[in-house]
Amino acid sequence: MLSKRIIACLDVRDGQVVKGVNFEGLRNAGDPAELAKRYNVEGIDELVILDVTATLEKRRTMARTVATVAKELFIPLAVGGGIASEEDAAAAVEAGADKVSINSAAVANPALITALARRYGSQAVVVAIDATLEGDRFGVYVRSGSTPTGRDAVEWAREAADRGAGEILLTSIDKDGTRSGFDLPMTAAVSQAVRIPVIASGGAGTFGHFVDVFTEGCADAALAASVFHFSEHAVSELKAHLDAQGIPVRLR
Amino acid sequence: MIVALIDYKAGNLTSVRKALAALGAEILTPEAPADLEGADAIIVPGVGHFEATAALDARWHQAIRARLDAGVPLLGICLGQQWLFEGSEEAPDVPGLGVLPGRCVKLDPSADSGRAGSPNRPSTASEDAAGSETRPYPSSGTLKVPHVGWNALKQTGRPSRLLAGIEDEAQAYFTHSYVAPDSDATVATTEHGVPFASVVERGLVFGAQFHPEKSGETGLRMLKNFLEVARAPGAGHRAAESSEGRRPNDEGRGLR
Q1: Between vectors from CA A53 to CA A50 and to CA A59, what angle results, nearest 5°?
Q2: Cis upstream peptide for B146 (omega within 30°)
Q3: Separation between Cα atoms, residue A45 and residue A249, nearest integer Å
């Protein structure tokens, strides 16, 4: 049976993980490669490196970060944040990314989805959607959630899939950073509307939230950042919890 | 140990190169079929549409078969595994290498034949637990295609050099929509609504439907096992002629 994936997100700025990390045994708590190695040992299924710098000059630092993380990592690695063109995507892939995640650029230029899918295959193209509840629908925002697009998240996910996206990374703007649980209605609505996997993001605070998003939320994968920093064994403990709850996961 | 990694422009090979390099292999990217002469092992990777394998034309078919006959092992990964068979309904006019029997088909999790009571269906403790809990777990009716993520390799029990040292039900990372047919070469199956051949092996022909280069320790072990086949006594002329890269305790390891 296909396992539900647990994905750790590393928010990286200037080559350092920006959210507070305090693992014992890490020489440098903010070093993405060390953290990636740690998560890998704990049994993380996939990693996402999110470039929160996203300025042209810092791009090179980012490529180096990706290359360093990818070097000893033999699980899927996705890279996102500020990827606006085929060239940006190529730089990430050359540095060792298996997948690229595009967000604002996909909305501005949906043909980019198709272009990247043709070049690298759909499995390498993740379309990230940031959305929030607006009346009876979920509105899509870009530029880190600051700019409304007028698009509906369910419709946009369908279009992205039709254009060649291999996965949807769906972040709830309402839930992000609250640790109050994933947005279950939104995740379920998008997941049931498309045939490609949907990664739920935003709101993870407890192990129970992951159970909820894999059952009620119909998510194929769940992504979190800070929740994995709670304890040294958060990833393995989370997986044991999910397994006990009857959710199929990859155990060590 | 020189591994020919055939790049026919079906996907990015960075991660395969990286994994092989980590295992100490030297990688050769053949420009033309004749370049295969120098290889101790051949890997055909690839993701995407079966149509892409058309780039491996009759000359490539001939050269690869000739190397196989000379004792050089061949590993197909993902689309590369599918290509080992006679063809695929994804691109019916493109012939596969045909060293394994049958044609690849679209993965259909809702197909009645495999849905209920499949002999390969794993029954795990966690599933039993799910039955006793009140949590609604999505049924196979909601299974998605492409099949993306980690899934278990259920070993069929046929002798396998590729699976040496790998636990039954170990998980590997998949991303695909088409599957190879079951045959007597199937050494592991995977279940996604229906069971399909996830690892195949016959003589010096090996295939993995998943991505060993992305499957953590399990995947690395399989790649290492494949390289050991190339090093084993009796494999390819280069390995046989050269004592380099062979350790005294290598004799017969993994051979059955």
Answers
A1: 90
A2: yes
A3: 9
What is the rounded CA–CA span in Å between residue B181 and residue B82? 9
Catalytic residue selected from A45, A88, A130, A212? A130
Q: What is the DSSP letter of B43?
A: E
CA dihedral angle for residue B152, residue B220, residue B168, residue A3, rounded to 10 degrees: -20
SS3 A125: strand
Residues B122 and B171: their CA atoms lie apart, in Å, by 13
What are the start-end ranges of the E strands in chain A?
5-13, 16-17, 46-51, 77-80, 99-102, 125-134, 137-142, 147-152, 167-172, 198-201, 221-224
Q: What is the pLDDT of residues A134-155, one digit of tens each?
A: 999 999 999 888 899 999 999 9
Q: Is residue B256 part of a domain?
A: no
CB contact under 8 A, B127 and A248: yes
Residue B177: which domain range? 2-250
From A151's Cα to the closest Cα of chain B, the distance in A is 25
Give me the residues paired with residue B150 across strands. Answer: B173
The reply to whether B211 belongs to the active site is yes
Contact A244 B126 (CB under 8 A): yes
Q: Which residue of A lies nearest to B146 if distances are taken between CA atoms? A: A196
Instruction: Name the average pLDDT for chain A.
Output: 91
Chain B touched by A15 (CB under 8 Å): no
Provide the CATH number for the domain around residue B114: 3.40.50.880
For residue B240, give how far its alpha carbon lies from the nearest alpha carbon of chain A (Å).
31
Is A51 annotated as catalytic?
A: no
- The C-alpha torsion from A67 through A72 and A75 to A79, rounded to 10°, is -20
Residue of chain A nearest B145, judged by CA positions: A195
Under DSSP, the state recorded for B157 is S
Interface test with B, best of A6, A45, A98 (most B CBs within 10 A): A98
Asked whether residue B17 is assigned to any structural domain, the reply reads yes
Q: Which of residues 17-76 of A touch B (CB under 8 A)?
A: 40, 45, 70-72, 74-76
- Predicted confidence at residue B240, as pLDDT, reads 41
Query: A68, A32 in Cβ contact below 8 A?
Result: yes
pLDDT of residue A27: 56
Boundaries of every domain in chain A = 5-244
pLDDT in tens, B224-236: 999 999 998 766 6
CATH number of A5-244: 3.20.20.70
User: Span B193-202, mean pLDDT?
Assistant: 97
